């Protein structure tokens, strides 16, 4: 019913820290992974051994691949076409 695995793709370390802190205040346990590099995130998500998360948060303003480019590439990965993805931006 509630997500148990969440991935945040965001180049800002502080945003990842705050996100993790907020998740720890929820009444259920969440496995959280913060990936700070869009290139690295795409490589991790594409690994066959990596189980897709229940929900993914994606920063819209990032270097290398911006949010739109990253979103299109994530959706092209098998198993990610229906994954809930929340776009966030500061």
Automatic annotation (TrEMBL):
4-aspartylphosphate PTM sites in chain numbering: 59
Pfam families the record matches: Response_reg
The protein's name in its UniProt record: Response regulatory domain-containing protein
PROSITE patterns: RESPONSE_REGULATORY
GO BP term, example: phosphorelay signal transduction system
Gene3D superfamilies, per the entry: 3.40.50.2300
InterPro entries in the cross-refs: Bact_response_regulator, CheY-like_superfamily, Sig_transdc_resp-reg_receiver
Domain of life: Bacteria
Alphabetical UniProt keywords: Phosphoprotein
Domain Response regulatory: 5-90
